[in-house]
Design brief:
Layout: E1 13-18, E2 22-27, E3 31-36, E4 41-42, E5 45-46, H1 54-68, E6 77-82, E7 85-89, E8 92-93, E9 96-103, H2 106-113, E10 118-119, E11 122-123, E12 133-139, E13 142-143, H3 155-160, H4 166-189, E14 192-204, E15 207-211, E16 220-224, H5 228-234, E17 240-242, H6 244-252, H7 268-286, H8 298-309
Antiparallel strand pairs: 1-2, 2-3, 3-7, 4-5, 6-7, 8-14, 9-12, 9-13, 9-14, 10-11, 14-15, 14-16, 16-17
Helix pairs in contact: 1-7
Length: 310
Amino acid sequence: MTLDRTNYNLPGQTAYYKGKVRDVYTINKDILVMIASDRISAFDVVLPKGIPYKGQVLNQIAEQFLNATRDVVPNWLISTPHPNVSIGKMCQPFKVEMVVRGYLAGHAARTYSEGKRILCGVILPEGLKENDKLPQPIITPTTKASEGHDEDISKEEIIKQNIVSKEYYEQLEKYTLALYKRGQEIANKMGLILVDTKYEFGLFNNEITLMDEIHTPDSSRYFYLEGYETRQQKGEEQKQLSKEFVRRWLIENGFQGKEGQVVPEMDEKWINEISARYIELFEKVTGRTFVKANATTILKDVEEAILKAL
C-alpha cells in the first residue's frame, strides 16, 4: 500500500495542513510534524496515484542533507522518528522559494527555447543549448503559492513589493549559493552533478533557518557526471536523476497542468518504474542501500513513531 493520506489526532495538535505531497501537523504552535506521503505532484498538480516508497526516499535524503549542511545555515530539523516523518521547529516562512541553477535545464531551458533571455531579472547569455553549464550559478526565485502555480519573480520585485526585506533577501542569496556549492561538492563525490535545486527559509527566534526538504528528487535535478561533456558535445540528452522524466511523460501525453487538460492514466507498470527511479536516485545520491519501510502497516507505524517522539 502507499501512504496517500493521514488523518491523525496528535496530542497537543493545534493545526493540520495538507500540502501537495506532505501532511503537516502543528504541535503546541511551535513544533511541526511533517509526514512525507507517497503523493506525487507535477506542474503544481497532485497526480491521482501514489508512488510506493516515494515519501520515504524524500524524507531520508532530506534528513541526510540537512545534517550535512548544519554548518552552512541553521535548519528546522529536530528528529526523524520514522523513515517518512520529520519533526522540527516551526518557522515563520519567507514567501519565496529560492531556486538556484548552475545549468540551463528544465523550466529555464523551456523559457530560453521560447527566445526569452531574461529569467527572474537575470540576463542569460546568447548561444546556450539545453543542459549547458551557466557561466556562474544564478538565483531565479518564485513566489510561494499556497494553492496553484508558483510564479517567477525577480529580486527587484521581491524587495519592491516588500515580500522580503532587502537585508534578509541578500542573506538568503548568500545561504542559497553556499548550500548549492556544498550540494554540488557532495554530488560530485557520488558521480553526479547537482544541476538545479530550490530552498525554503523562514525565521526561528529571528534567525534565518533552512526549512523543508533539500537536495531531493522533488526539489532538485541531478545529471550523471560521467559522460556529461561528451553528451553535450554530441547534442545528446543528459542521463539524469530527477522528477523531470515524470514531467516529460506528462508533456508527451498532453498534460502540463493547464486548464482543460486531463492527467493521463498511470498504469501499474509506470507507477512501479517511477518508484524504482526514486529508489535508484536515493542510493546514488546518498551512497546508502535503500531499506524499504513496512508498507502494509505504515499508517500505524507512522503514528506510533510520532507518539513516541512527542
